[in-house]
Amino acid sequence: MARKKEFDEDAALLKAMRLFWEQGYEKTSMQELVSHMGVHKGSIYDTFGDKQSLYFKTLKRYSEMLEQSVKRRMADTRSAKEAIRVFFEMAIQQQEDFPGIATNSQGCFLVNTAVELAKHDSEAIDWVHLRWTNTEQFIRDLIVEGQQSGEFSKTLNAEGLSYYFINALIGLRVMVKTISDREKLRQIIDMNMSVLE
Question: Residues 3-44: pLDDT tens digits?
Fold first, then answer.
């Protein structure tokens, strides 16, 4: 008969996410994970696998939480343009989507992963690339929706703009790590949004 787990798996995973997010993959040791998660090393391996497996589980959980936040925030939007703006605003208010886990100065977990691991971990970059491709598609769909409703000009290149916006979004998420001036960040969003006019 299997022993009942003596810890909350999701709570432990969120603690691991916070530590990886703050320190990065390479700088986080298994001993730090044991201490931070409050889980014995053997239990971590039994439940989550090795350090790399645990890292990817935290990335997956991060993506799920982000998708839930996007759905929640998009539910109240009344136009494609407003939806795109809300999406950008999320980048400068991420502590609201990850309470107790993230601060704006930590940046985006996916962007951090790309910067740290892209050169030597093909699995990590494949994961990040898939998320960014999904985001491009999401933005492209919003632009097409806006064109169909008459909100945006039909002459806009929806695909090209989706590339432009993902690039702008990644840049914004990097800037958030070092800029605390929210007004300046909102002006950057305004400038990016102006390409839709």
Answer: 456 789 999 999 999 999 999 999 999 999 999 999 999 999
CB neighbourhood size of 60 (10 A): 13
| Token code pair at residue 33 | 């994970």
CA distance 187 to 81: 16
The contacts of residue 123 (CB under 8 Å, 6+ apart) are 56
Rounded Cα gap, residues 180 and 162, in angstroms: 27
Whether residue 153 is contained in a domain is answered as: yes
Rounded Cα gap, residues 34 and 70, in angstroms = 31
State the total domains in the chain: 1
> In this structure, is residue 87 part of a structural domain?
yes
Distances (CA, A) of 59 to 89, 118, 184: 21, 14, 29
At 102, which CATH number?
Answer: 1.10.357.10
Domain that includes residue 143, residue range: 59-196
